[in-house]
């Protein structure tokens, strides 16, 4: 296996033309799916694509896709890159390298860094640090609240480029403060994203409250701790015009029922699910221990099946990893004391494609939830193929069978329960702004 890398500091130089031939081009936003196709980029943009067996004249480089899928790069709107403050766990550079290896061309960093992203200077730091060190496009949320439990300067933060607001890692428990945040966000036309958790119900819990927590004698986290908060927030937003409420890493059947009800009322409520919540259950804790500890926790088989059904019926809008890197010592502890979270950027695509290979979902539906749908939630013009759009693309071998090995991850962290997992489907090339930044040759 030969991996090549090129740090993204600028896009492809102006006027440089690359043609991708013999491609199966898929664009979920338009349901385009054409074989034996070509795509031509010039500089950082797509300028032409379609069916052709001929190489256009005047190109600088030719890439033979050999029948593989050429599609928009993946968008992951929920990652933790730990910078600033916990660079021993991950950095923007290492996290973005992990993203590139997973075919993720744009990420949204969560603001629970040290210090937290709750002011313009820190938001500006993330932006410029990304320009210096990132392999992929970096966006970020800012905090809803300050350390003093007041609203952040939301208007100024939006001007600085943040794409939404969340206190992820912790919920906004104060109902009045949450309603004020929803009101301000409606004026700014940005989403409020909630880590839905009633801390009084979950306090001290390590895993899902159920058969495994009882068997191990460990305090569990009730699924109601999530669904109660989701329901509260939906009630708070009901009479606010132009408000967008987004539920982070949904995990329980009851939460999905609340989201579905809100959607039936015409409310702008969206939600995301992490691959581990539609792939694993609480039983994984018995096999993997603290490596299978995350918040929200892995839940029951009924909840897992509800996540799959939610993806199929549209209640769940997108898939996001909640990429949460930790050093070995943070996980090598008793279950009650170990840190929550797993890494996920390099397993995002194969775990999602499992739904296709198992004939549970249509390929186009899955890819939509990894591309333009998350892009639409944060209102960025990415995740699509079209003339004059930025050339953020990936080349995917849908049927490539491989074994996931955490020691090969580009991330600093290796905390994944999917080590030695037999996967099908892999990213072979990642292109950002017309420039190949990652390629894999087997």
TrEMBL record:
The cofactor binding remark recorded in the entry reads:
Binds 2 Zn(2+) ions per subunit.
Q: Which cofactor does it need?
A: Zn(2+)
Positions annotated to bind substrate: 80-82, 112, 295, 326, 340-341
Q: Which family does it belong to?
A: Belongs to the metallo-dependent hydrolases superfamily. DHOase family. Class I DHOase subfamily.
Q: What class of enzyme is it?
A: hydrolase
Pathway the protein takes part in: Pyrimidine metabolism; UMP biosynthesis via de novo pathway; (S)-dihydroorotate from bicarbonate: step 3/3
EC no. given is: 3.5.2.3
**Which keywords accompany this UniProt record?**
Hydrolase, Metal-binding, Pyrimidine biosynthesis, Zinc
What the entry lists under PANTHER family is as follows:
ALLANTOINASE
Name the job this protein performs: Catalyzes the reversible cyclization of carbamoyl aspartate to dihydroorotate.
Source organism of the structure? Wolbachia pipientis
Binding residues annotated for Zn(2+) 2, in chain numbering: 168, 195, 249
Q: Which GO molecular-function terms appear in the entry?
A: allantoinase activity; dihydroorotase activity; zinc ion binding
By its UniProt entry, which Pfam families does this protein fall under? Answer: DHOase (PF12890)
Q: Which InterPro entries match?
A: DHOase (IPR004722), DHOase/Allantoinase_Hydrolase (IPR050138), DHOase_cat (IPR024403), Dihydroorotase_CS (IPR002195), Metal-dep_hydrolase_composite (IPR011059), Metal_Hydrolase (IPR032466)
NCBIfam families attached here?
A: pyrC_multi
| UniProt name for this protein | Dihydroorotase
Which region is the signal sequence?
none
What gene is behind this protein? pyrC
Example of a GO cellular component annotation carried by this entry: cytoplasm
Which residues are annotated as active site?
322
Specify which residues bind Zn(2+) 1 according to the UniProt entry for this protein. 78, 80, 168, 322
One biological-process term from Gene Ontology?
'de novo' UMP biosynthetic process
Where in this chain does the record put each Dihydroorotase catalytic domain?
Answer: 68-255
Q: Which reaction does it catalyse?
A: (S)-dihydroorotate + H2O = N-carbamoyl-L-aspartate + H(+)
- Entry keyword Zinc: yes
